[in-house]
Amino acid sequence: MLNLLGEMECHEHAWPFLVPVNTKQFPQYRKVIKSPMDLSTIKRKLQDSSYKCKEEFAQDVRLIFSNCEEFNEDYSPVGRAGHTMRQFFELKWNQTE
Ligand SMILES: Cc1ncccc1N[C@H]1CCCS(=O)(=O)C1
Question: CB of 58 closer than 6 A to ligand 1?
Answer without folding.
Answer: no
